[in-house]
Amino acid sequence: MEDVSYGDELWHVVLYQWLIDNALTDRLLEIHHLLGWIRNAFTNLAMGDYTYPTTFLAPLPGYPVNVACKMMATASSKLQGLADVTAMVYNGTNGTLTCLDPDTEYIECADPTGCGLGPDSRALDYQVCSELALPVAGSNNKTDMFPPQPWTPDMIAKYCQEKWGVTKRPSWITTQLWGKGWFGRLKSL
Predict the structure, then answer these.
(1) Which residues contact residue 104 at a Cβ distance below 8 angstroms, ignoring those fewer than 6 apart?
(2) Global confidence as pTM
(3) Whether 77 contacts 1, CB under 8 Å
(4) How far is CA 172 from its chain centroid?
(5) What family, per the record (predicted)?
């Protein structure tokens, strides 16, 4: 994807073959959001990888990762395969949407894999910024399949300060949930 990220092929596929409704006008700024939207699709695909069809993230078939691999392997190009799989996640297997919209289907947040949509996404974003100790999860395209996208503790702290005006409390979860080693202390009672 990065190989063609600023060329005409990507934008032809994105705007026409991916059925994205609103044109991406500022390519340099929007490519980051587009890559996050695609990454979120694959994250949801992995979370919904059940042996049976599910609808809690999207109307997905059983074994959706296997279905996605077959779609990518049989597509006319790698980019088209990526488009087909992303569309399956956001448009489901019923295909009722006439177009896709990365701006409404993906909200950037403190968790680089996405926080969902609507009020729930804002709540999770705040929790990630203030309470949840998620592993630092950038991507480097060496140990994962995603384009390089750094997401360091300093970047998360800056985002959280700018968005919510909060600083993460790394010990919050252990304090609220009885601290480290609580089970051992419980056995000694």
Answers:
(1) 117
(2) 0.72
(3) no
(4) 25
(5) Belongs to the peptidase S28 family.
Express as a percent the part of the chain with pLDDT over 90.
16
Query: DSSP per residue over the chain, as a string?
Result: -GGGTTSHHHHHIIIIIS-BSS----HHHHHHHHHHHHHHHHHHHHHT--SS-B-SSS-B-SSHHHHHHHHHHHSSSHHHHHHHHHHHHHHTTTT--SSB-HHHH----SSTT---SHHHHHHHHHHHHHT--PPP--B-SSSSSSPPB---HHHHHHHHHHHHS----TTHHHHHTT-TTHHHHHHT-
Ramachandran angles phi, psi of 95, nearest 5°: 60, 45
Instruction: List, for residues 47-91, the tens digit of each pLDDT value.
Output: 889 999 988 877 889 999 999 999 999 998 888 888 889 888 888
Q: Phi first, then psi: give them for residue 61, nearest 5 degrees.
A: -75, 170
| Token pair for 135 | 């592993």
Query: Cα(85)–Cα(61) distance, rounded to whole angstroms?
Result: 12
